[in-house]
Amino acid sequence: MRADTPPAVHMRNITKRYPGGVVANIEISLTVLPGTAHAVVGENGAGKSTLMGVLYGSVLPDAGSIEIGGAPVLLRRPADAIRHGIGLVTQHTTMIPALTALDNVLLGFEPIRLGTLDRQAGRRRVEELSAQAGIEVDWSASAVSLSVAALQKAEIVKALYRGARVLILDEPTATLAPAEADRLFAVVQGIVASGASVLFITHKLREVLEHSDHVTILRGGANTGDRVTSETSADELVSLMLGPDRSAIRPAEGPREGPRQAEVALQVNGLTVRGRGGRPAVHYADLSVRAGEVLGVAGVDGSGQRELAEAIIGLRPAISGSVTLCGDDVTGRSVAFRAAAGLAYVPEDRHREGLILDFDLSENLLLGRHRDASAGGGRFLQRRRVLADAERLLTEAGVASAGPAALASSLSGGNQQKVVVARALARQPRALVAMQPTRGLDVGASAAVYDAIRARTAAGMGVLLFSLDLDELREVSDRIAVMYNGRIAGVMDRDEAGVDRLGKLMTEGRT
Amino acid sequence: MILRRLAPAVQPLLSVVGAFVIAGVVVWACGGSPLEALTALVQGSCGSSTGLLRTLSKATPLLLSGLAVAVALRAGLFNIGAEGQLILGALAAAWAGHAFTGLPAWIHIPVCLAAGVFVGALWAAIPGALRAWRGSHEVIVTIMLNYLAIQLAHFLVNGAMKDPVSMAPATSMVEPSARLWAAADGSNFSAGFGLAVLAAVGVAVLLRHTALGFEIRAVGLGADAARVAGVNVGRTMISAMAISGGLAGLAGAIEVLGVHRRYLDAFSPGYGFDSIAVALLGGGGALGVTLSSLLFGGLSAGATHMEAWTHVPRQIAGIVQGVVIFSAGARYLKGRRR
Known about the structure:
The complex is a heterodimer. By secondary structure, chain A is of the alpha/beta class. In chain A, about 35% of the residues lie in helices and about 25% in strands. Chain A contains 17 helices and 22 strands. Chain A has helices at about 50-55, 80-85, 100-105, 120-135, 150-160, 180-195, 205-210, 235-240, 305-315, 335-340, 350-355, 360-365, 385-395, 415-425, 445-460, 470-475, 500-510, and strands at about 10-15, 25-30, 35-40, 65-70, 70-75, 85-90, 110-115, 115, 165-170, 195-200, 215-220, 220-230, 265-275, 280-290, 295-300, 320-325, 330, 345, 430-435, 460-465, 480-485, 485-495. Helix content of chain B is about 75%, strand content about 0%. Chain B is built from 12 helices and no strands. The chains are: A alpha/beta, B mainly alpha.
């Protein structure tokens, strides 16, 4: 970049301590040049979100200064940041479902003519901006009807509409299929070419290497390196992210042996399930998970994975078809019945569906087993037994906590997920349905989750693993099924599951 | 550890102290002596054995219906309908009290109490079921059912259930075998207070030591997680509402069997509504509700005494109550938003 232009963003010695003594950022400095794509990588808890929060004005730093375009600024709230040309696109959409995509973009910055909303002018501006960035969205559609990818693009346009010159993307590809992710990065290139800057947070090193100009690596709240992307390598990034001593924690790779048992743990036949709005979201799904195997399910987000998983678990009624657990038909049975019969579930959203954050850990571990005498449950709870059981599970799972009486909300994401998984496996289930069990977890926590699952798999548990991360699926699955538009588009052995083939099945339903 | 356990009590205590200060300022501004008023209030509520018993007797219905609101609250349900459940429970107990004759007291009293509990539970199960199956908001439904209950009771005690030999809109007196022991000193203190304390212990055990109580708390704090873990959320909500209504019904039954000896139209000065404040101030736990019902009972008992001895109107006690309700409500809203 030219040396005389001031950096788009210059954050200097940002320090942020949270109450309770957690230091999220320690004197982090970050410089983003105009017209560049800048990646920020790091494990969970490395301080990425806090740093971005500081830049977006939603987190007040204890120390440090920020300059935008060379001028010092004070960002006390997001409105300040927006005024200074900072835009944020979060992992979760902020759009109001009932409004159209256009109205969502205009909301708060409405063009006014004669005291009324000038939607035409707004639409012209929005379409102009989206054309520049190479984005196509149906602006008249209500936000609820848009796909995750389309919502994300609308969010980007929303930020641009508000005059963003520095766009922050928080884990932008977490819920996108590979082809969609590629399209997203094409948009990023377009924005960068127009002279604006894009700052994206990610876990995925491939994205950093392929799509960024500069990269900043955070570890434990500190900046461990700034690199020009073309001058670094995946190995260097990993060692900067994890520290020299920790790069060995990656989950075990390579072929997994172990005889596949012929017995079927979980059988799904012709399952059809209604989704939101009453339309069938799953059509005649057939799946068969053998004992001791991991059957991965790939698919673009919203292809019916959630509905399928919930129907198998018993949270959602099936219109037709059957679910069989180790030979016993459990179709139409309650969640509790299926759980007692040996079907366990790791839900997608650990805060809402996995844990009760205001319950302590012993209560969370008891939930679902509270009628189970061996866990200290029953009509009257046996407190001492519940605590002892919790103590044991926490130790076995390696959860870093203040003990069974600690509130679930006091744990980090990785430890929370360990609790969820420990509870699911505590009943020694014969089949496990797991929805993105490592979503948002760092490498170490992911490995711990998979180690726990593998230990049970070795004892004959069948696993149906839903994930949006193809690398992860190819790493841990024996076979991979692909869902496309509510159907099982194909099932293949892991060795046959190349990214191209999976990607084509995911986005087109055929190879 | 002890400090941590006491922490939840700090805010309610502060709000009570603050309420007394504000009421004192009002008394002072009107030319009265706050200290004198407070002394008279304390004298009236716990300065004598009669005063103390009057406090306990006033606290009895508040404690039971406060527990009722608290149990529902723990399941995440706002039972505004304790008043209606209490009224119908009282009516059912009064009916059982005079319809059955010749029973020994040890059978008759439990039968009457059970009738009150049963009818209260049934009345509260309606909004529970509508919430569980149809998603109707329990606040709306319980408010509407209050009107239904009040009018239904009014209709019945002026017609089909009216005591034929009395002018008053009331049922016949219950049989002596259905009457709870009561003190003869005019304090209206009855054995009902003991039953209410037993109920408080029962609620504490339910919430803390039973699977059903665990499910109720789980549904209240995380209905989605509970459902995913296999808890039947709808059934738990209905159970919680039924228990809640049963407690309110018991409050009504005890008022009938221990105090009035019959169902008297409009006998409740709004116990069911005050109980919402009792439950919120008590933080939804059995011990907290017990303490806050004693506070409210004492205020009510002491206010009469204060008015008689200091010319400070009894409505001053209402100011204390009002401020406490405000701050308890604010705390609840804050907790909800989180």
